[in-house]
Amino acid sequence: MNPSHIAIRNPIFIFILVIVISVWGSIAYREIPREAAPDIQIPLLIVTIPFPGASPEDVESLITNKAEQELQTIKNLKEIKSTSSEGVSVLTLEFTSDFDIGEARTKVREKMDQIKPDFPDDAEDYVINEINLSEQPLMILNLAGEMGLLALTNFSDEVKEEIEGIPGILEVRRAGGLEKEIRVYVNPDKLNYYSLDLNQVSSAISSENTNLPGGSVKMGPTKYLIRVPGEFETPEGINEALISAPDQVPVRVRDVAQVVFGFKEITSKSRLDGYESVSLSVIKRSGENLLAIRDSVLKIVNKLGKDYKGSVKFSIISDSGKRVQKIVKDLENNIISGFILVFLVLFVVMGISNSLLVATAIPLSFLLSMIVMNSLGYTLNIVVLFSLILALGLLVDNAIVVVEN
Q1: 141/322 Cα distance (integer angstroms)
Q2: pLDDT of 61-79, one tens digit each?
Q3: Looking at 96-100, 157-161, 206-210, which range is the least confident one?
Q4: What is the tens place of the pLDDT at every residue in 88-108?
Q5: Are 398 and 358 in contact (CB under 8 A)?
Q6: Nearest to 46 by CA among 7, 10, 81
Q7: Could you tell me if 115 and 89 are in contact, meaning their C-beta atoms sit under 8 angstroms apart?
Q8: Model's pTM, two decimal places?
Q9: Is residue 244 left, alpha or beta, with left meaning phi > 0 and alpha meaning psi from -120 to 50?
Q10: 322 pLDDT exceeds 70?
Q11: Contact yes or no for 75/107 (Cβ under 8 A)
Q12: Backbone dihedral region of 69: left (phi > 0), alpha (psi from -120 to 50 degrees) or beta?
């Protein structure tokens, strides 16, 4: 007995099944996340090891060669490439496609921790980066106004915090504006007077700017952990950092240097319509609904645009959600138009019953696909949407052939 015979003999069961698929599929279609592109794991890791002030030859002999010898023993490593430049060593590790990139990152970190003591003391901590296409900005927001770059930077930070409060947002990156910086101007004559050097000043500031554990105190059934806070809360606190105490006379940072709270040197500028501007790149978490996050961001932008109308101009430079929304609407239009056209054509040729049968198969198959994809954790991205549009045409052709036979 084939499925068609079972369906014909149990019409009520099939009718209920159609209703269940329609309701369940509609819920799944609303819940399934929308994304611009699928989450593709690229089996590449990039290890960056800064070595300030070193020549390319020194970087290669003291950093790159040691790292290569140790990293090439990692399992499933397909290829390793290295570049030794002035002040930095960059190693690119390519793994086999079946190797989990998270496990690869762990293995690389373990190997780097093993060889880190062999690096020169001046070498800085290594950084491991991976290529993740899902971390591309879904929207780039530009803020411009006449309030000045400092005020615009502070305002953009407030907007950044508000957008980061949206569920599903991974981070918001700010480009442009002013970066706060604390500068310590050391007087070389005073250093010579106290027989000190720059390394002693730097070490004193680093050692003072830290929190220390102070053990624990047990009072009855309760145990309290003690922590000694030592981090600088204000720039003025750096002045009190102790450098040395020759003959019991303390020498502090204020005795040999001047601490200034300012801003980093501006290396690039952004302007919009003749005004200073700051850009915010909104990045969502992988698997989150792009369109829902986009709508939430637009609500915040529209609200702030009305509140600060005339003083700050909001402009959306890039919006990947707009393209995804257009493709989703095209898919919905194709389904609706396909349903109507197929019904009308088959109604003329084959009658009302056959035309309804084929036309009903179009949205029913689509909703059933939504149930399966949502259950398996897939997202509604460009690849899936194009596949559904292609399958829609095949579905109509095959349904007509089956009914005609």
Answers
A1: 14
A2: 888 888 888 888 888 888 8
A3: 206-210
A4: 889 988 888 777 777 888 888
A5: no
A6: 81
A7: no
A8: 0.62
A9: beta
A10: yes
A11: yes
A12: alpha
The residue type at 123: A
Residue 65 to residue 298: CA distance in whole angstroms: 50
* Residue 17 token pair: 């099944």
Q: How far is CA 175 from the centre of its chain?
A: 15
Structure tokens at 82: 């290295």
| pLDDT at residue 230 greater than cutoff 70 | no
Return the residue matching tokens 């005020």.
151
Strands 242-244, 271-272: pairing is unpaired
Mapping DSSP onto H, E and C, the string for the chain reads CCHHHHHHHCHHHHHHHHHHHHHHHHHHHHHCCECCCCCCEEEEEEEEEECCCCCHHHHHHHHHHHHHHHHCCCCCEEEEEEEEECCEEEEEEEECCCCCHHHHHHHHHHHHHHHHHHCCCCCCCCEEEEEEHHHCCCEEEEEEECCCHHHHHHHHHHHHHHHHCCCCEEEEEEECCCCEEEEEEECHHHHHHCCCCHHHHHHHHHHHCCCEEEEEEEECCEEEEEEECCCCCCHHHHHHCEEECHHHCCEEHHHHEEEEEEECCCCCCCEECCEEEEEEEEEECCCCCHHHHHHHHHHHHHHHHHHCCCCEEEEEEEEHHHHHHHHHHHHHHHHHHHHHHHHHHHHHHHCHHHHHHHHHHHHHHHHHHHHHHHHHCCCECHHHHHHHHHHHHHHHHHHHHHHHC
228 confidence band (pLDDT: 50, 70, 90): low
385 vs 70, more confident: 70
Q: Cα(394)–Cα(387) distance, rounded to whole angstroms?
A: 11
Contact 94, 101 (CB under 8 A): no
Distance CA 107, CA 100 (A): 11
Instruction: Give the pLDDT score at 24.
Output: 92
Tokens representing 363 are: 């949205």
Residues 6+ apart with CB under 8 A from 39: 133, 134, 286, 287, 379
Lowest-confidence region among 174-178, 198-202, 265-269, 294-298:
265-269
Query: Exposed e or buried b for every residue in 96-111, given b needs 16+ CB within 10 A?
Result: eeebebeebbebbeeb
Instruction: Answer yes or no: are the C-beta atoms of 176 and 225 closer than 8 Å.
Output: no
End-to-end Cα spacing for the chain: 19
Average pLDDT of the residues of the chain: 81
